[in-house]
# Entry
Amino acid sequence: MTVTTSDRPIEAQSRAKRLKALTNAVHEGVDRSIMSASSFASIERYKRFLAIQYLFHRDVAALYADPRLQAAFPDLVQRCRLPLVIADMADLGVSAPEGTAPAFVAGEPHDMGSALGWLYVAEGSNMGAAVLRKEAQKLGLTDDVGARHLAPAPEGPAPHWRAFTAALDAVALSEDEEKRAKEGALEAFARVQAHVDARLD
# Structure
């Protein structure tokens, strides 16, 4: 059976929409895990959530410094949220957690397909951040203290996301690279889920 979204076969959708359809179930699972752990019930719970954010954004930080990816996404450097997460951790006295080695290492060659899948997940989390930002504000956190990484882009989350997906859809990939983009997106969500499972209960 052919999966369809918006009344069009998934194969005819843009790359961003294909990745959304492919990852919808695992994305919802990650969201449920984070919210069911009462991550915004207290500052202490939020600190654990912040540690997960640190680990995932550390996983992908090297991609934002990749010259080939920067050529495809001109504003990629500015999109990296790891420095904001680190600043939020400093605000709240959260030490960098120990964890597995980052998924990507700076200076090493990155497969374009896989990298695009991981970037899709990292950048997509900006859209969900609007809801989390409101929860953080209930704890007294702001865009300047403790919740910088949840703040929207100056132009707004929707235009910020549309600019990313337009660039994502414009990258030419081989059939094998396209497959690895799908695999990369699923791997990225699995990585987030692993961080959640290890640090939230």
Q: What stands out?
A: The mean pLDDT is 92. Residues 35-199 form a domain with the Heme Oxygenase; Chain A fold (CATH 1.20.910.10).
